[in-house]
Amino acid sequence: EQPVLEPVLPAPAEEQNGTDSAKAPKVNCEERNTTGIERFTLQILNVSQDLMEFLNPNSSDCTLVLFYTPWCRFSASLAPHFNSLPRAFPTLRFLALDASQHSSLSTRFGTVAVPNILLFQGAKPMARFNHTDRTLETLKDFIFNQTGIEARSDVAVTEEDWEGPLPSVLTKGIDWLLLFSVLFLASFVMYATVRTDSIRWLIPGQEHEHQE
């Protein structure tokens, strides 16, 4: 399991307000203006696009970012639910990126496993989605608990959400890191074996023991 990022905590004075502080959002998101926007959809970053170019460090708007890989079955099962989120929360932004193509970001934000979902305020990660049950309802609850923004009640996962933009069908791919690790380990074992045999023949008396 991934470590939980500490969300913004209310000020001590607010903690004394009882029920009012319990209802206060942990992240105060600036909701974007949706005037003129007809279609609310997820944006997927390609290999040449940098996530930090899409996050404004000088603003308090919030963005939900998904780190995934196209050959991960958990990412594929999450895809239709994540595709429907922009319609449920039109005032928030939603991005997704292939973690295998953005390895530096995965290291920077500790997303060593996929799928991994981070809530950003500006360019700062504020909270991480840690539930194993990745459905539209659990995602809506997570966003509401963090931001206080309510989801639209008429949004559900549709057939279009299964088609994209985030793919829900696994694609065949090669895990180059795993392949390189296996080749390196095999090469090291072969090298160690050859060196051990060479050293044994150089030790006086070992060649006689071998002949006997």
Automatic annotation (TrEMBL):
Q: Where is the Thioredoxin domain?
A: 5-148
Protein keywords: Membrane, Transmembrane, Transmembrane helix
Provide the transmembrane region boundaries: 176-194
Write out the ranges of the annotated region (Disordered): 1-23
Pfam families, per the entry: Thioredoxin
Gene Ontology CC entries for this record: cilium
Q: Which domain of life is it from?
A: Eukaryota
One GO biological process term: cilium assembly
> What PANTHER family does the database record attribute to this sequence?
THIOREDOXIN DOMAIN-CONTAINING PROTEIN 15
Q: What is this protein called?
A: TXD15 protein
**Which organism was this protein described from?**
Chloropsis cyanopogon
Lineage start: Eukaryota, Metazoa, Chordata, Craniata, Vertebrata
